[in-house]
Automatic annotation (TrEMBL):
The keyword Transmembrane applies. It comes from the Eukaryota. The lineage of its organism: Eukaryota, Sar, Alveolata, Ciliophora, Intramacronucleata. Signal peptide: none annotated. This is TRP C-terminal domain-containing protein. The keyword Membrane applies. The chain crosses the membrane at residues 12-41, 82-106, 166-191, 218-238, 274-294, 306-329. Keywords: Membrane, Transmembrane, Transmembrane helix.
């Protein structure tokens, strides 16, 4: 599943370039709109069933609400309000928040219930840290786009004269945008302090090679910075397409040069695919520059439109091929591992039948105290000497293991070690 997330993140930059304020001829724009819906996980078709409910909350008519421009509308941002533009992301956020609240309740109950403890341990490993960070990364672009669109449109209006629903959308947009920027700083600090090596933050450096270049560990954070700059350029400069092309081309070339010099991924295949995606995005921007310069030359515009479609299809096919190759390699490794384990078990069984197990020995220490009396004559005196000795014995217990269930008698072997004599004399 992580391979699919990575593929969608890699393609998100080139797909978002369809929001540049330059009309694209042919079917390239509808294809980009469909791909952006897949990448942003807008698969629940919320415009069919969620919009009436949101209209009741916002109390806003269709005449008052319109997209920021046609190019953003073609990519799924059909409103100026964040609740409409989030779409499926809004549902996923609610599910994520509900699961986090449920995990918190299970933590409180873990001290009183074994079932609550097991559920909390399950959710902690998969949801609380790694799952939440992955969700933020996956939904980073739609959250930034939706909040920034709402903030820009609301800045032109008098919020005091608007309905409470519209003011709610504006406040929610400001909060989400501020939280996204704060998360960028937090993720950067986590990586800088080395906490990303911990299991709960490992999503930030997952799949990155930190041995070649120290900047590689910041690659996920750099990607989020790049997406933020792209969103700012596309939303704040909607009326200036030439500046959009210039800034995005510089950003794409900078990202491609960093990818080539740093090579942040563990796998050479991943590095090659990431560099390929950056080059495809740069080529896409240059084709858009040619499309903006084509003017009214319809044959040239159609040819450039076909070039855009070809670049998109080529990027998608190559990335999907990478996913299939990596899945095949992973399946092959697992099958080979199981096969090797099965062969080892078979060989061990054969060797055990050929060579019976050696005798097992257990050494115990037996301590005994022995007394010995002797008589001596010194002149007319008669002395009776009583000597006490502590005798220590190492008892070696040998037991033969047989395959049969019948009991086997034990064989004993004694080794005696004499300790230092302790002599006491008694006079009679």
């Amino acid at each position: 599943m992580n391979l699919i997330w990575d593929m969608m993140n890699d393609l998100s930059f080139i797909i978002s370039l369809g929001m540049i304020s330059i009309p694209i001829p042919g079917i390239a724009s509808p294809i980009q709109s469909m791909l952006s819906a897949i990448i942003y996980m807008d698969l629940l078709m919320t415009d069919k069933w969620l919009s009436p409910f949101l209209e009741w909350i916002v109390q806003n008519s269709e005449d008052e609400d319109s997209p920021l421009n046609l190019f953003l509308e073609s990519q799924g941002f059909q409103s100026q309000l964040i609740l409409y533009n989030l779409g499926s992301t809004l549902i996923f956020i609610e599910i994520q928040v509900f699961l986090l609240i449920y995990a918190g309740l299970m933590r409180l109950l873990s001290s009183m219930s074994i079932l609550g403890k097991k559920q909390y341990e399950f959710l902690e490993k998969r949801l609380i840290w790694g799952g939440t960070i992955r969700f933020i990364i996956q939904q980073f672009q739609p959250l930034i786009f939706s909040s920034l669109i709402n903030i820009r449109c609301a800045s032109k209006q008098d919020l005091r004269a608007q309905s409470p629903g519209i003011r709610l959308n504006f406040c929610l947009s400001v909060i989400i945008f501020a939280v996204m920027l704060a998360l960028l700083v937090i993720f950067h600090v986590i990586v800088k302090k080395g906490k990303a090596r911990e299991y709960k933050y490992s999503t930030l450096i997952e799949g990155l090679n930190q041995t070649k270049n120290p900047f590689a560990q910041y690659w996920t954070v750099w990607t989020l910075y790049k997406w933020t700059l792209m969103c700012l350029i596309l939303i704040l400069l909607t009326d200036y397409p030439c500046q959009q092309l210039q800034l995005l081309t510089i950003l794409s070339l900078l990202s491609a040069s960093l990818q080539l010099s740093v090579q942040p991924m563990d796998s050479p295949l991943e590095n090659a695919i990431c560099l390929f995606n950056e080059l495809m995005a740069t080529c896409y921007l240059y084709v858009l520059i040619g499309l903006a310069s084509a003017g009214d030359d319809i044959p040239l515009r159609e040819a450039l439109g076909l070039s855009l479609i070809s670049l998109l299809i080529l990027a998608i096919v190559v990335n999907m091929l990478k996913v299939f190759i990596l899945i095949g390699v992973e399946i092959y490794k697992r099958i080979r591992k199981r096969w090797c384990n099965r062969e080892r078990v078979t060989v061990s069984t054969v060797e055990a039948k050929k060579h019976p197990m050696p005798e097992l020995e257990e050494i115990k220490e037996d301590i005994r105290e022995e007394e010995e009396e002797t008589e001596e004559f010194k002149g007319d005196a008669r002395l009776k000497i009583k000597q006490s000795r502590i005798r220590r014995r190492l008892v070696i217990l040998q037991e033969k293991r047989q395959n049969e269930a019948a009991s086997v008698p034990h064989q004993y072997q004694n080794q005696s070690i004499w300790a230092e004599d302790v002599t006491s004399k008694q006079f009679r």
